[in-house]
Amino acid sequence: MDASEMIKTACDMPDARYANLWDSIVVERSIKDRLLRSAALSLRLRAELPFEATALHGLAFLYGPPGTGKTTLARGLAHQLAPLTTRRKARFIEINPHGLMSAEHGQSQRRVTELLTEHIPSMVDDGTPTVVLLDEVESMVVARSQASLSANPADVHRATDAVLTAIDLNGSTLPQLIFVATSNFTGAIDEAFLSRADVAIHVPTPDALGVLAILKTTLEAMAKAFPPLAQLARRPQLEQVAKALAGLDGRRIRKTVSEAMLGRLETVIQPGDLTVEDLMLAAGRIQASDQTAQTKSGGRNGTN
Amino acid sequence: MERTRFIAAAPVRSASEAWRVVSTLLADTLERSSSVPTGSVGKELAPLKGMGPALIAGGHLESKGLVLVDTGLHLTIRVLTADAALEVEENLNPVPGGASATNAWTLYLPSAGALDNAVKAAVKNSTHLSTDAPPASAPAEKSAGASRSLIDVNALRSLGNKP
User: Cβ of A47 and B144 within 8 Å?
Assistant: First the structure.
C-alpha cells in the first residue's frame, strides 16, 4: 500500500496555515500548558537519556467529548513546538486511521507495522522533532480485553499488538518523534496503549466563561466579512446566550452562530444584522435538538 | 535496529535490473546523510557492476543477502527469484537510519560458492565492500548528550513570560 493512503498530512512547521489553530481552541490554559510542556519535556529528556532512565514513550493522549478541540490542539502543537526546538522547526504528520484498517486477513497488522516502523521512521530520519497525530485512535488500538474474537477478528487484535510494538520501538530509538493520540471513547482503547501514554489530558466541554469566549471569537472572526458582528460580540447580553448553551461542546457552540443566521431570511442575506435574540432562539433550538437526540440514543455518552 | 528488505528478481525483472534496484536503494538510503556525498555510493558499488547481477542470477542473495552496516544501521537485502519473487511486496523507500549514516558504511557480501574468488578480487581494493562475515548488529550510536539536544532551553524559558 502506498504511504500516501496512510498519511493524511505531512508538513514542516512553522506553517502559516497552522498558526491560529492553537489559539482558536478555547480551553483552560492548563490544558494547553500541559500538552506543550509534555511534548517539550519528552523531546528534552529522551534526546539525552536512554529509555531505561526516562520510561517515556513519546505518547500524549487527549480524551474527552467530541467537538472539544482535541484534534485541533494536536494539529496546532507542532507549530507551537517549532520555536522551542534547537532547529527552530518541527514537522507535523497526520495519520489516516481508516487507511490502515483492512478487512483482508493480515493486512491491518502489516499496514500498521509498515507505517509505524518504516514510513514514519524514514520521514523523521533527519532528526527534526515531529508530532504524529493518531486521531480517533480507538480504531487502531481496540481494547483486547473487551473485544470478542467473534466480533473483532484476530486481525484487529494483531493490529493493536503492532501499534504497541511500534510505540515501544520508536519510543526508545527515535527521541525526535512524539505521538499525540485523540479519542472520544477511552473505554474502547487497549489498556496497554493507555499505560504507555506519558500524559493523558482530559479536554472537557467549556464552562460558562469558555462558552462566552467561543461565542465572542466566532463572532469576531465573522466580523472580518460582516463588521456589525463585532458590536454584537461586545453585547453584555451574550452572557445569557452563553448560559443557554452550557454543556455543549465547542464545535456546537460555534455552529450556534450560523444556526442563528439561518433562523431568518434577512440574516441569511445580511449576516451582519444578527441579534442577541436570534442567538437565543438558536440556542433553544440546538438544546432541544440535543435533548431529542439524547433521548433517542438512550443518553449514551461516548466518553467513559 | 535490524531491518530486511526484499527485492524481486526473475521472473519479475532481470538480474541486471534487480541489481540496479539494489544499488538505487543503497544510494537513496545512504546519500540522505550529509556525510555520504551524492553519487559516492554508486562509485563504491562500481566494482560489483558485473558481479552483482551474477550473484543474483546464481541465487546467492536469496537466503543470506547483502548486509549494509553502519552506526545505527543494519540492513539485510535479499533478492528473491521464482515464486518468492512473484509474492514479495517490495518496499523501495530509503531505509530509516540512512540519514545519519557515516562515511564508514560497509556492505557485506555473502559467500558465493564458485564465484567467491571473483567476488573477493572485485572488492579487495574497496574500503566499503567486504566479504567478511557481517557483525550481528549495528555499532552503537554515540551516547546521547548535549550535542543531540532537541529543545532550546532558553526558548523554553520564554514560555514562562507569556501571558
Answer: yes
A210 touches chain B (CB under 8 A): no
| Partners of B77 in beta bridges | B5, B66
Judge whether residue B140 has pLDDT over 80.
no
**Percent of chain B with pLDDT strictly greater than 90:** 74
Residue A121, chain B, CB below 8 Å: the answer is yes
- What's the pLDDT at A286? 86
Instruction: Provide the 10 A C-beta neighbour count for residue B28.
Output: 15
In this complex, do B151 and A169 lie within 8 Å of one another by their Cβ atoms? no
What is the edge-to-edge ordering of all strands in the sheet holding B129-130?
A: B2-8, B73-80, B66-70, B106-108, B129-130
Helix (H) or strand (E) holding B57: helix B51-57
- Specify the residue for cell string 444584522: A273
Lowest mean pLDDT: which of A60-69, A152-161, B20-29, B152-161? Answer: A152-161
Chain B contact residues (CB < 8 Å to A): 1, 3, 32, 91, 93-100, 144-146, 148-153, 155-156, 159
- Highest average pLDDT, of A78-92, A104-118, A161-175, B87-101, comes from A78-92
Crossing angle for the helix pair A276-296 and A250-261, to the nearest 10 degrees: 120
Global ipTM: 0.75
Residue A234 has pLDDT above 50, yes or no: yes
Residue A21 pLDDT > 50: yes
**Residues of chain A above pLDDT 70, percent:** 89
* Residues facing B151 on adjacent strands: A85
Burial class (CB in 10 A: 0-12, 13-18, 19+), B43: exposed
Beta bridge partners of B75: B3, B68
Asked if B95's CB is within 8 angstroms of A40's CB, the reply is no
Dist CA B111 CA A198 (whole Å): 47
- Residues near B68 by beta carbon (within 8 Å), at least 6 away in sequence: B26, B29, B30, B74, B75, B76, B77, B95, B105, B106, B107, B108
